[in-house]
Input
Amino acid sequence: MSEPMVKAERVHKRFGRLEVLKGISLEVAPSEVMCLLGPSGSGKSTFLRCINHLENIDGGRLWVAGGLVGYRFANNKLYELRDSEIATSRAQIGMVFQRFNLFPHMTAIENVTEAPIRVKKVPKAKAMERGRELLERVGLEDKIDEYPNRLSGGQQQRVAIARAMAMEPKLMLFDEVTSALDPELVKEVLDVMRQLAGEGMTMIVVTHEVGFAREVADKVVFMDAGVVVEEGAPAQVLDSPREERTKRFLGLVLEH
Amino acid sequence: MAGSLGATDEVTAAEPAGEIRAVPVRHPGRWLAAVIVLILVVALVHSAATNSRFQWSVVGDYLFTTEVLNGLVLTLELTAVSMGIGIILGVVLALMRLSPNPVLRSTSWFYIWLLRGTPVLVQILFWNFIAAVYPTIDLGVPFGPSFVHLDANTFITPFVAAMLALGLNEGAYMSEIVRAGIISVDEGQHDAAHALGMTRMQTMRRIVLPQAMRVIIPPTGNETISMLKTTSLVAFVALNDLLYVVTLIYSRTYQQVPLLIVASIWYLVATSVLSVGQYYIERYYGRGSTREQAPTLLQRIRAGLIPRHAEVPLPPEAPRMPEEHR
Output
């Protein structure tokens, strides 16, 4: 059994007096696709943001690819990482957001090549070539020089996925990436994600798309009120949940 | 219901496809207002042109004299240098204000409080008399050895005093403008840049500041135009700027009004040039924020002169929505 890509041990997170994560423990193996389900406010997105240290955790331990997130352990002590060290460790984790967050002052290709050129110091010509390949793979070869506001939501989100992929991450985080999309645009984004999963990318997907979770996920985790309520294979969690809370939530989601 | 359907049929019958042709609504009120305003304007221009006491020929005589032109150059130099200092200082102070370091934050706050809270004229005079408080200026390690030794009386000339006063004062105002611009950029942009592995500095330089520019440029243009006119205060330290030069001339010739018009004409010319510059800078930083690139000034003037129904060589106005989704 190889080392897990992500390992969380009793992760706690507070915003002021509000405890958002109350001891999350879970593991994601390399090439595994894990879907995080749960009602809004259950802490799924916060947990995702902790994984690449956009939020720092208040308790517990969190490892990505064997390294502690945000800290270095030496001489029996934890040392906070510097800004530049955190940046370096983030570069191996791709993240896609609910509201796309493309850089509006850059064209699609500039969005995709910015981080490889600035962070990884890839030569510009090489980054452009790779960027074009990636945009082609998400089906946007004819939108390369378009600014984000000339693209539909689905196209913007596909650029965002290409942008994250350009850093050649070991792990991809998806934070409700289809929630801001019109229903007819959801499929084109899910298709790209399906393709990524098929290529063996390790993915953690916060989503409300139960169908996608059933089809693509290796593991489904149901969270509520800052704790993991239930986890297991999609068929088990989604079709014959053990916990009452999971049943109630799935009933509500599948009803409409 | 049937009636309205009939009406629709009539229109479609008369005009199967394309443009709508309809009799426009008349606006007699607009015409009346325009005529009244035009009459007033003509009367004003006529009185200015025919009143011999404006001495327009004197205006012409002095407009291009070396003395006046030298004054104009000094005014422009002072504006450029002071704004340069102001903008750089403004960015630094804004970043300090937004820094997690409480010492930097409060120092920046104090600086802004002090320099915004006292008249700029007082600051100009203060810098001019700085030699009274600091006869010598030493550059080096604080409380340690000094590398450069300057005599304040010779180093702080009136020009340097004016430049420092105006620039340092402007920095306080610019920092608030820059800060507003930075705050206006969506939090998600920071998240996205950080998630890609960019450091805080890279995020600021490559992602946040370019977007903040859209908010920063218009008030900065305002500040520059305001600075151009504020430089006239340097007359108090006997610097030969545009305004001081004309006052010197009319103190000899007693032709106050025409010489003040000379100065005003040059101030107007300079602000006009600055406004055009601002338009193009805004256009540059507006890329990606509107669906179509804004027209150049020439295109705009052409569009305004050519009648509305004529063919105007402009990019199409209507936003082109992306039609296909794979």
Observations:
- Chain B has a mean pLDDT of 86.
- The longest strand of chain B covers residues 146-151.
- The CA atoms of residues 303 and 310 of chain B lie 9 Å apart.
